[in-house]
Please model this.
Amino acid sequence: MSTELPVPEPVVTPETAPYWAAAAEGRLLLTRCADCGEVIWYPRSWCPFCSSDSVDWVEASGRGTVYSWTTVRRGPAPAYAGATPYVLAYVELDEGPRVLTNIRTEDPGDIAIGRPVEVVFDPVGETALPRFRLIAGAGSDG
Model:
């Protein structure tokens, strides 16, 4: 299995520019609602939980656990067709939100729900895409 995945360039908007600037530096930023305290994924300027427009940027730990995953064996687009098989997963960040992402691994058999992961960044253009890898030596929680 290859860990080489296509790195599509994201659309950077004024609303998400701080997120992508931090990613370029190898940092994972999230937004948190100043009113209800929820940590929000995908970063935005308002809270989808309470509709407040009072949100702040917070640096995430970059750690989480595998919530769900699948091995994709047939890529949905030409760029991904040559990258199969690859792992698509929901990672539950330590801060709470679940992120749809890829997990870099040579062996999908090593992945299990509850396995700890950490963020890695794949450079693209002037930013980077967050993806995850299994934390070496850490077993499943469940």
The chain has two helices and eight strands. Helices lie at 17-24, 78-81.
